[in-house]
Each structure stands twice: as structure tokens, then as C-alpha cells.
Amino acid sequence: MRLLWLGLVLVCTVASAQIGPVPGLGPIILGGISQGFQNLISISLTTNAATQGGIMRREIITSAVLNPISDGHVRVTFTPPTTGNNTTYSAVWIGEASGTGVNYNGGQVQLKFGGSSSVTLTAGGSTVTSDSTSFTYTSGTSIVVCFDPGATSDVRYVSGLSSVNYSDYTKSGTGECPNTTVSGYSSSSGQTAVLSLIEVGP
Hints:
Blueprint: H1 2-17, E1 29-30, E2 33-34, E3 38-42, E4 47-49, E5 55-61, E6 71-78, E7 87-96, E8 109-111, E9 119-121, E10 128-129, E11 133-137, E12 143-149, E13 155-158, E14 166-172, E15 186-189, E16 192-193, E17 195-201
Antiparallel strand pairs: 1-2, 3-17, 4-13, 5-12, 5-14, 6-10, 6-11, 6-17, 7-8, 7-9, 7-12, 13-16, 14-15
């Protein structure tokens, strides 16, 4: 009986020691939930634009080009210009779109950077990724990312994308990122700026 008990202890000890990441198998799944983030969309930015200070932006990406995944947290990566002035924002928000325009559907959240609302993207420097933020994204809805500008900024952007699925809305001013409904924005279709990766995860 004592030998049987010792055998069970040994088996349990070995099994528990082997629970963990297995090389080549990706993130561990616990209770059916992946412990890693998944790409909602990745965008390669190619061009610098100068004198973008004081310009609010709302980047619209439709569900047609977003990966069909849903989850409860989000983080976003932003790319600085390769030369020129730093990109500075006092606030960045993300939300699901109401239809295909500039407005949110009401569930927008503010992104933070090391707990701070503001962020500086250093020209010629590395990309910056926001903190993981609680945000329920439902597959099949379009995304709005809003930037509240600093006084002096250059930005990195890309054009020549699908005019139906990407739109860069701009307006002079500040302070409108939290607003569900806005007006007076001009659209550059087939273009997006600053954001280069959106990920969702548990």
C-alpha cells in the first residue's frame, strides 16, 4: 500500500513539473482561452507627412479587412515618422464604428501608455504599443481609432489602400476623441496613419 502511495506522488510530481509552454506549440491554452494576443490587423506604413500638429484624426478600418476574431482586451501599436518631428498625442481612443462613418457605437475606451494618457512617438525611433485595455470587440464590426493631437507633429502613413475599407478622417482642433458622435471631418479614402497593428486578446 505504501509503495502504491509513493508511486502516485511521483507521477503527480512529474506531471505538474511538465505543465508549461512547449516549444513550437505556441501559447498555452487554459480552460479553452489563449493566453496570447491575436492580430486583428497589421498595416505597413510607408511615408512621412509633415506639419500635422493640431489635427485630430479618426482612422476607420472596416470589418471586411479585419480578422474574424472576438475578445475582451485590445492593444494597439503605433509607428513614428522616420525623420522630422516627433508624433505627439494627448489622448488616443478606440471603439467599434457605428456603421462605416467616423462615429463610435458608444463602447469606446481610452488607450493608455504605461498608465499615461499621452504618448510621444520619437521620429526615427521604435514603435510604441499601448497598454492592454479592457475592450469587447465583436467580429464583424468596423474599428475607429482616434488621435488627439499635440501642437507639433509629423506622422507616418500609407496611401493606395482599398478606398472602401480604409479612411483617414481629419479635422483641426482637439478634445473630440471621447465623443461618440462628431462632425466636420474630411476624409482621405484608401489611407491610414500612425497605427500599424491592432491586437485583441483575453
